[in-house]
Amino acid sequence: MTQRTDAARLAGLSAAALSLSVSFAHAQDQGPPDEVTNWVFQPCFDNTDAGWANGVVPWIEAVESATEGSVQIDLEPAGALTSGSEAFGATVAGQLDATACWATVYGGNMPEGMLAFGMAMGAQNAEQAWEAMWGDPDYRIGEIVQQAANARNLQWAGWSNQGPNAMFTKFRVDSLEDLAGKKMRAGGPQAIFHSTMGGSPVSMDAGDIYTAIKLGTIEGTYWDTGGVDDMSFNEVVDYAIMPGWNPAQHQEIFINLDSWNALTEWQRDQIEGIFKEVYFKTSEMHAEGVEEALQSVRDSGGEVITLSDEEIARMREASVEEVWPQIAEKSDLTAKGVDLWVKYLEEKGLY
Q1: 74 vs 79, 134, 207, CA distance in Å?
Q2: Cα 96 from Cα 285, distance rounded (Å)
Q3: Cα angle 214-218-221, degrees, rounded to a multiple of 5
Q4: Same structural domain for residues 214 and 200?
Q5: Residuewise pLDDT in 10s, the chain (351 residues)
Q6: How far apart are CA 223 and CA 225, in angstroms?
Q7: Measuring CA to CA, which residue among 334, 315, 351, 347 is closest to residue 117?
Q8: How many angstroms separate the Cα of 293 from the Cα of each of 100, 173, 240, 290?
Q9: Which of 1, 12, 84, 302 has its CA 20 to 30 A from that of 150?
Q10: 220-224 and 165-169: which strand pairing?
């Protein structure tokens, strides 16, 4: 009897010990791991870009805080490890752990990124963009972008509305017809829009734009409004055309999928949990910089032109019917996303 009782007691103790061990392991999984993960983050731009202080830095701070310091991120400017144009591909390959860019290098490497970058005359503000991409279950266009990112060994983990991507020109624009024949620096979706409107898009590095406008090589540029004074474009242009071709231009942050999957479930949950919060925080930061940038144009002797409601409606119709189909042609997923964007505008009475 005693032997059986002792055996039962030992069995009970063993079961309790196993349960305690499992509970401890579970508790460990629900908090920061003991080992710190170090990432290298290089955007497609350097610290002179508005997206640095108003987008990337707040995201990094939020990630490090949310993961209780168990993820530490070393931020390097474009050119430190690879060129800005190569940063997206380097993140896919795992040479970088994370990067930030626009439409994934203007859509060349991942056309579905244009759905997140912002459609020509699509969402008018951060609230509309969030609703279509993530907030309303009838659309969830963001899931399409995430699917495309995962297929390229990436995780889409950050997003920021940088405000209007507008035309900054040496010539006056009051209607679509005023863009015809004009040579403007434009890349990716900007170039698609500009050429569709009859203009001549010119591709060049950001560092060459100022001089090209000053010398008359080009007649203006498409640029995120909040970054115009950072690039000193206000010194060489005469007009800023609002609300621009893309009233809500976005910047995206991508993490190498292997680096992402190497995190614990708790760490991934923490980073996913800050996505929306940081989106609206950084979008507000960018919005505050927009009016300052426009004032810099005025202070330099330039004029800010706000297109009429009628002209904006014309531009939106031309964009949806002529520009968006060219985006849809890029892949089956972009076509699906464009259909959802059209549905969103129609159901919201915007088109």
Answers
A1: 14, 29, 25
A2: 27
A3: 90
A4: yes
A5: 444 445 545 455 454 444 444 444 444 458 999 999 999 999 999 998 899 999 999 999 999 999 999 999 999 999 999 999 999 999 999 999 999 999 998 888 999 999 999 999 999 999 999 999 999 999 999 999 999 999 999 999 999 999 999 999 999 999 999 999 999 999 999 999 999 999 999 999 888 999 999 999 999 999 999 999 989 999 999 999 999 999 999 999 999 999 999 999 999 999 999 999 999 999 999 999 999 999 999 999 999 999 999 999 999 999 999 999 999 999 999 999 999 999 999 999 999
A6: 6
A7: 334
A8: 22, 19, 10, 5
A9: 84
A10: antiparallel
Is 51 among the domain residues? yes
15 belongs to a structural domain: no
Among 317, 327, 326, 328, CA closest to 350? 317
**Tokens 């990094």 sit at which residue?**
60
Give me 76's structure tokens: 């390097």
Distance CA 338, CA 328 (A): 6
Interhelix angle for 57-66 vs 275-299, to 10°?
160
Residue entry with tokens 């007009």: 239
Alpha carbons within 13 angstroms on the beta-carbon side of residue 274 total 22
Q: In the block, which residue shows the tokens 């949310």?
A: 66
Q: For residues 156 and 260, is the Cβ–Cβ distance under 8 A?
A: no
Note down the domain range covering 174: 165-248+301-347
In this structure, the answer to whether residues 243 and 254 fall within a common structural domain is no
The enclosing domain of 117 has a CATH number of 3.40.190.170
Domain co-membership, 132 together with 121: yes
pTM: 0.89
Q: Is residue 182 part of a domain?
A: yes
Spatial contact of 139 and 344, defined as CB atoms under 8 Å apart: yes
Q: Which tokens belong to 39?
A: 């990432």
In this structure, is residue 16 part of a structural domain?
no
CA 217 to chain centre: 30
CA 202 – CA 188 distance, rounded (Å): 11
* Residues shown for the chain: 351
